[in-house]
Amino acid sequence: MDDLDINPYLLDILSQPQAIRLALAKTDLFPLKALSQELKAGGFDRILLTGMGASYYGLYPAWLHLAAAGLPAVWVDAAELVHHAPAFVTGRTLLWIASQSGHSAEIVSLLRQIENRPLAGLLAMTNDLSSPLAQAVLQQEVGGLKTLLPLRAEPESTPSTRTYLHTLAIGQLAALCLAQAELAPHLAALQVTADGIAAYLQDWRAQIEQLAHSIGDGTRSIVLVGRGFSLTSALSGALNLQEAAKLPALGLQAAEFRHGPLEMAGPGITVFIFAGDNGSSEQASARSLNLKLWQELRSLGVNAWLVQPPSSPSLLPTKEKGEGGILSIPNSIGIGLPLAEIIPIQLLCIHLSQRAGIIPGTFRHIGKVTTEE
Fold it and tell me: Are strands 221-226 and 269-274 parallel, antiparallel or unpaired?
């Protein structure tokens, strides 16, 4: 791969470390104080997190933080909310909408649906301050407490890179703020992760070569599985592979993989298992389950890889660290884990696109923004 192969999608990937640093420096979470106080006072009966695509997946870690704090939070995609569960939005709901463009068809439909209905609060996360989503807050079109959190990413013309990482970072900080957690250690974790991503991408050609070796030439489809905070990486990673590289890919919760999809196991399939963090007893237990799944898949002839930070303790015997062993992600800590996990998948899209003879990250049937339901 030479400099002639550099394209807008790759440039977007390489720009992410500096972009996340700038976004963190500019993000002001003070406007969330009123929502946090209202939540503590019992003014909301539920927090409803919604979106579509990468924006929706990017909210999953935020939901986990809210759930861990014992807060009544629900994660549901906007299409189901609009067409099958509109009554779930009540006069005591804090509605949290994430949309990178703020123009997505389902988001616009949801805003129309709630325009003349009582709503306790609206938290909007978007990158376009002129979008219908941002204007619903700025022009006071929706009643109740309203807060706008800009993603502060440079515009993209390719599948989501910067905007997804910013959704992960700002979304998690917002959830922790609503839960009234101390933010300083989490901000520090994101800075460490940004540095780790920068170091990883410094030799991006070598990283792509390693990823190309990991999948080999016989891979027909890819499955990504994860638990907890890594589930967002499995879901978003599969979306990246489908959208940017046009490859059949599945993103699944690791336990769900056993409930049917395990029947696909065999040659021709590559499975990336996000090992997750090892910072608590619960996470250590999940890592053990992931290792068990890795071992079983290897025994079934699957090209399976355990994806983890380089600083994580190895769970594998030394003799098993070669083919189908460990694949390192950028160094990360704490809430930075899902930001780091997606980076190798983004680079993998570059290799798979070139292997298929297509320009990485170009659109064939859709555009950057989905405006049709």
Answer: parallel
Q: Residue 190 contacts by C-beta under 8 Å, 6 or more apart in sequence?
A: 20, 24, 169, 173, 334, 335, 336, 339
Whether the full predicted model's pTM is greater than 0.85, yes or no, is yes
Report the Cα–Cα distance between both ends of the chain, in Å, rounded: 39
Q: Note the pLDDT of residue 279.
A: 64
Express each pLDDT in 305-327 by its tens digit. Answer: 999 888 665 545 434 433 458 89
Q: Which two tokens stand for residue 163?
A: 């905007």
Residues in the chain: 373
Q: Is-contact 95 121, C-beta < 8 A?
A: yes
CA distance 172 to 335: 7
In three-state secondary structure terms, 147 is strand
- pLDDT of the residue at 202: 96
Give the residue with greater pLDDT, 105 vs 267: 105
Domains and CATH numbers, the chain: 3-181 (3.40.50.10490), 204-356 (3.40.50.10490)
